[in-house]
Structure formats: C-alpha cells, structure tokens
Amino acid sequence: MRGVCPSRAGQARGVDVRGIVREALLDALALVLPVACAGCGADGRELCDACRGRLREAVPARTAVGGIPVFAGAPYGGRVQRAVLALKDGRTGLAAPLADLLVAALASASAHGAVPPGAELCAVPSTRAALRRRGYDPVRLVLARAGLRHARLLRPARAHRVQKGLARAERIANLRGVHRARGPLDGRVVVLVDDVVTTGATLADAARAIREAGGVPVAAVALAATPRRSATPARKPGDNPVAPGYGGPKGAKETTA
Fold first, then answer.
1. Residue 10 maps to a domain
2. How many domains does the chain have?
3. In a domain, 40, yes or no
4. 108 φ, ψ to 5°?
5. Is position 9 within any domain?
6. Which residue segment(s) compose the domain that 100 sits in?
7. Which end of the chain has less Cβ packing within 10 Å, N or C?
8. Tens of pLDDT along 18-75?
9. Confidence (pTM)
10. Is the Cβ–Cβ distance between 168 and 65 less than 8 Å?
11. Measured distance CA(180)–CA(178) in Å, rounded
C-alpha cells in the first residue's frame, strides 16, 4: 500500500537496541530536566511506564463520519486525553508514545478491510493560526514518529471560530469549507488522519474536500475518539467502494454511546 507502510515494520526481530538507547537517554534527561508524566503527573518521564502501558492496552474504537468509517486508537478521555492535550500544548516528546495509538488505529482499519491496496495517508492539516502558535503540526509529528509516510493533499482554506462552547450543529457549520485540496486528485484513494474525533465535523469537511478534488476518501484514523451516537452507520464488512467485498469485522469496538 503506497504511503501506509510503517518503516519500523521492517526492523529485524530481536533486541530493540534503538529502544534501549532511547530509554536510557530519557532516564538521563529526567535527572537533568525533571518532567511530570502527562498521563498521571508522576515525576520522571513525559509518559511513565504505567501510562504508556495503558495506551498500548487501549481497545481501538470505531465510528463513522461523513460516510466513511473512522478508527481510533483509544476512546478519548483520562490519560489519553491528557497526553493528547499535552502534545498539542508543546510537549512534543509525547508524539512517540502516542504514535502507538495511531499504529493501532491503522491496524484496526486494515483488519476491517478499510485500507485497500494503493491507499494513501493524508493528515488533516492544522489551521494556519495553530501552526504559527505551536510551530509544528501534531498529527504530522505523530505520523513521523510512527514511521508512516503521508501525502500533503489538503490545506486550510479559511479561518474559523474557536470550536469550544459550540453545539454540535454549530461546530459542523463552523467547519464547513475550511479545507481545500492542493490540486486535482483524480481517483487517488485516501485515508484521512486526525488527532481527535469529537463531533466529526473536521473529518467530514476534509472528506468533502477530497471528493470535490476527485479523490476517494475510504476511511479515517485518529489517535482517539469521543464516544458518541452517530446517525451515520459504519459501513458493513465488504461495503468498501474501492474494493467491494474486501474486509470483515475484526478487533474494533463500536463507539455508539
């Protein structure tokens, strides 16, 4: 699959020398620059071993937005929520452990047949204002830490109001038309990537922009998703428009509440 193969998948089996070195460096850094765990507040690491373990044990969630299935690495809440918010607030070291959630979401999507051969990953871009404020795009940073190639197919088309405090219908209206494709997509098959799915308004508009440029959005993956009731049912197994009959139900929990 073009653009969807993690580079770390090709690492030789055996001792993870890079991981051992990374852990040793993190321990040394914690002595010089003490930090608190983003998940539980314990001293010593960006994310402590216990919280990292919770992330790895999270059950992938599944919902639907804008006519496409969405697979998230974990429900949004608790330690996951705190870690994601900390990443967006400048703690870029959290991109590496959060990459595990993205890899889990993509694995779940693949197991459900939602990622056909030739599909490309496309990050939903940060707004221009957020990019200026942070100096980085959290989603693209996590993709890089996960070793996942992605195509820059979308760009922000206009500014929008802050979403906080808006009702669901207001959020959807607020985000309508905020994305635009960078050019014609001519049938390119796309899997969208976002950090958190709440109302789904961001992904729905990104999918619209892909379609209007001639692309085919088949699924979306995210670090986490807020459980909610959706009027749009997730596609049934084998209902993929690009590869009919491809896939079946495996390993993801429906988020219906």
1. no
2. 1
3. no
4. -65, -45
5. no
6. 59-254
7. C
8. 655 655 555 555 445 557 899 998 887 789 999 999 888 888 989 898 889 999 999 9
9. 0.74
10. no
11. 7
